[in-house]
Known about the structure:
The complex is a heterodimer of chains A (39) and B (238).
Chain A: H1 3-36
Chain B: H1 18-45, H2 51-70, H3 78-103, H4 108-121, H5 142-165, H6 169-195, H7 197-201, H8 209-215, H9 220-230
Helix pairs in contact in B: 1-2, 1-3, 3-5, 5-6, 6-9
Amino acid sequence: MNERDRQRRRALIAFQIFIYGYLLIQFGIQLSMWATRSW
Amino acid sequence: MKLPSLNRLPGNGKRAPLALDDHIGESRRAQWGADKWLIAGSLLLGTNAAGIFGLPLFLWGLQKLRLASRAGLSVRPIMVTLIGYLVIVDAGLNMQGWILDLMASHTLIYRVLYTAWGNAFDMGYFWHYNQLWIGGASAPGEKSWELALILVVFPMRIAAAIAFLQMRRWGYQWLIVTCWFGVVIWVGYVMNMTVFADLRYTGTVFPVIGWWIYDIVFITPFLAIPYLHTVNRETFSE
């Protein structure tokens, strides 16, 4: 694996952490809203 | 599909060995034999209501492809097949659902189906349904997403996925582009959902969790991005 491939893999891991983290945060916000409201 | 042209005539005018021709012919037949099932399965999967009948056809096509690959035939890689067809089904389902909400929202079947779905998961498809000047869903921002995605993203995505399945380079490149569109869609749409959560979840049968379970299956664009960025692009012909 050359340096470029290694950088690409690192970027893809960072991207996945970002995108799943974002979705998880949104889910968490909605859950916390649900806990405090009478939906 | 653009298979490598291995059966071209060599420089001295003699034909390439017959065995190679046989191999190519058999590979093409096996590929089409599997694709027929995969196409039929995808069409049914894309209909929403008859989707469950499409799954066994799709899996059977996949199995045929796997067996052909195992037998040493030159067929399309399984991962390319899976990503290509699932992108078509995903974009097709979303496009069909939203076109119907936009154009057919006054029909009896969609007044029943969409408000029933809305009552269970998302009140944007229940409260004040059909009371805007266009389409059914009344959720804030929903119509903008519907129009932008129906007109721009989904047709591009389906066209790219078809070329991707034909192993063409432009299909591969445009699938990457539209997968990144998928990221934009999800980041924006989920934010919109959270901002208007009070409107959309109040009174639902399954607040929050129901919507997430239903929608999480459409997350395929994210799963394809790492593969598309690491696969050898030379596999796809110019």
